[in-house]
Amino acid sequence: MQALIKLLRPHQWIKNGFVFVGLLFGHAWQDPEMVRLALVAFAAFCLLASSVYVMNDLADREQDKLHPDKRHRPLASGAVGTPAAVVLGLLCGGGGLGLAFIFLGSASWIFVGYLLLNAAYSSGLKHVVILDVFMVSAGFMLRLLAGTTGIGIAPSHWLLLCGLMLTLFLGFAKRRAELNALGDAGGGHRRVLAHYSPAMLDQFLAMTAMGTVVTYGLYTVAAETVAQHGTSGLMLTVPFVLYGTLRYLYRLHRQGGGGDPAYDLVHDGHLLAAFFGWLATVLAVLTG
Question: How many alpha carbons fall within 13 Å on the CB side of residue 120?
Fold first, then answer.
């Protein structure tokens, strides 16, 4: 049972927190129906994401055996057999789609799109340099759409652009971390790594890190943002975003981090402090 739970990667469910961005910045956290729909979307994405993790681990179990950390995953290590993994993956996928169609009927296309996107990624697009990271980023953007358009909240264009930059940054950081861990043997674990180089990824990281901070900063001072929230105080949250971005780069280059954003967030005190400082300041500004 412990191995089956580990196969679902519940610690990765923190990434599905993207669906709550609409509640936060759309002033909808006091609307019980909106909160209910956002929670359903979160639960559906947790189930669908776990289904995708199981299927990916099934497909990559031989390559994972070559990775210093991934070789301990349940399928790569042999702790879970193929039949049990297939049944578990199908149950999670069916459960996630069931929630989406029953409670979020008009937005169910987002969840179907998420599965199709991951199917395309696993079937070959994960081997296409640069496009592989854009595919991962698109999965996060669907989470943002589920928590905004999917539950009836109009998303800010600046916030969507910031989300794109942030998820691209995290995706390229993961590729850089894999090169750090595997070196010249990276192509044996993940074929696309043979097309990346440390210098190239460092440039991509610089571009997307800058894009994340700049687009978020522009969102906080945009006229539509000030008009919606009745204050320009959100600019006070920019230092937390900048510090968190720089700290993540520090962990990537100096502490062997960057390969798993969820793990890095919960295991690094600086990142946790930056996140909760950002969240507390946002709540303080939005609630007056």
Answer: 15
Q: Give residue-wise pLDDT tens across range 81-135.
A: 888 888 989 999 999 999 999 998 889 999 999 999 999 998 889 899 999 999 9
The model's pTM is 0.89
Give the pLDDT of residue 283. 93
Domains in the chain: boundaries: 1-155, 156-288
Which fold, 1-155? Tetracycline Repressor; domain 2 (1.10.357)
